[in-house]
Amino acid sequence: MAAARAVDTDVLVVGAGPVGLMLAGELRRGGAETVVVDRREGPTTESRASTLHARTMEILDSRGLLDALGDPPNEPRGHFGGIPLDLTLPGPWPGQWKVPQTRTEELLAEWASGLGADLRRRHELRAVRVAADAVEAVVAGPGGHPLRVRARYAVGCDGEDSTLRRLTGAEFPGRAPVRELLRADVAGIEVPDRRFQRLPGGMAVAARRSDGVTRVMVHAFGAVAGDRAGDVDFTEVAQAWKQVTGEDISAGAPLWVNSFGDAHGQLVRYREGRVLFAGDAAHRQMPIGGQALNLGLQDAVNLGWKLAAQVRGGAPEGLLDTYHTERHAVGRRVLGNIRAQALLLLGGPGTEPTRALLRELIRDRPEVREHLAGMISGLDIRYGDHLRLPHTDLLTPEGTSSTTELLRTGGRGLLLDLADDPGLRAGAAPWADRVVTVTARPGGPQGPLGDAGGVLVRPDGYVAWTGDGAAEAADALRAWFGEAR
């Protein structure tokens, strides 16, 4: 047997789905050497998650990635547990945007690879050992040829059945699925479009695409989640569809069939020393309304700059631990709202009074609609006192720009000098390798930036500090970006 090949890197990312690829790009922006391994031969060919929410669109724009997506379909209307909900909130990307996961993965793979991430397909993680100063992994490459990877940190982005999580024994409490939704993409059928239609026997969804393929989703009230060793068979989908709607789709050609249940779980710790987790490897939830994908992508953006700073050296003490502190709380909240939606969506006739009340509140109470829309879109996420920096038009010495464009800083933070203060700029100069300073003023009303003289923004787009004066700014720079150099 040939000797195992070996590679050394800063970070080993396990999983090349959207979350792993997003993380790889973020790590490379921050200067961390990154190897990504995935057992699949290439990006997914299945439609799977296809919804990007407003906060994710902001992030993609701040990385300069939106132009490559072209003009994806936009739908202002979403839902909460099958109850129609207008997701429109202030900002340039209201509502939800439909991008097939195949395209999302393709885009992020090109981006991460272009930044220098070492992406290795057909490489499956087999063993891992966590040492005091490194993580040592054994990976089976094409043909079973072993590869030994030594990394300073490893991150599991390998889905709800995470191999890295299993190999490290990370504590992952939760609940097995009780109910499930069957779904399929089917060619050659003619059924009416349905949007979470509740019928006496169950709930049905049908949406015909421009290519003639229809996505169907169905749940028969009272049906329990199956104990599945493999994929669901289309025959089961067709039988459930006929039971609920009375329509026969069995002659259609299934292009993709699966099921997803209302299981939920969350890691006790997103970080265990040199091993971290993001996306579905960190939290398991029913993928209602696209929240699972968006939650995972935002995990990656929160983690990437912090982990890159850690491996570069000079990161402030405790910075990497804020990944768990911040994102575990966000994940817990999202899992809670998804569990509520699952009850509303898959519950039988007994849920109708609750659904009627919520429908009335959404219709008659704008603050209820805005609260739910903010929760689903991710625009209301905050980390303690740290809110996201809203998209704002700005005037700079170079011309018109925006907060989103200015965050294209190559992994660095952003300090906005809104008072044209030479002292502020001079005080920030020792952090120029980690923070870009820009003199700017709002292009319109002061709006969300308030009347502060300076605003310090983390690379993930959240405000670290607002205030006046070089001394205050220096304290904030030190707290989030380490000591001056």
Automatic annotation (TrEMBL):
Q: Give yes or no: UniProt keyword Flavoprotein.
A: yes
Q: Which cofactor does it need?
A: FAD
Q: Which PANTHER family match?
A: BINDING MONOOXYGENASE, PUTATIVE (JCVI)-RELATED, TRK SYSTEM POTASSIUM UPTAKE PROTEIN
Task: State whether keyword Transmembrane helix applies.
Answer: no
Source species of the chain: Streptomyces cyaneofuscatus
Keywords attached to this entry: FAD, Flavoprotein, Monooxygenase, Oxidoreductase
Molecular function in Gene Ontology: monooxygenase activity
Gene3D superfamilies per the UniProt record, alphabetical = 3.30.70.2450, 3.40.30.120, FAD/NAD(P)-binding domain
UniProt-recorded name of the protein: FAD-dependent monooxygenase
Annotated FAD-binding domain ranges read 8-335
